[in-house]
Amino acid sequence: MDADVKKEMQQLLELMQEILDDRGVPRNIRITVEEAMQKINPKKPKVEEFSTAIYMLSDISNDINMPSHTRTDIWEAISKMEAIKEKIKETQI
Description:
About 75% of the residues lie in helices and about 0% in strands.
């Protein structure tokens, strides 16, 4: 895995950790973010696991109880995951 992907993975995990640390975020959303974090393995990332994590975050992004700043963070995390997933695909071809 190249340095760009590692850096992006680190930024993604930091963003997701910030969501987990925010006590203003409802518990069900924090649980889903934590499960999505566990799906992506920074040492050996797999496209399928990123797709699953993206789906999980997309599913909760419309939660009516989510604070607006958290929704923005979720969308940013999804965007980062999509970019990393594409880079992983490119290296596998």
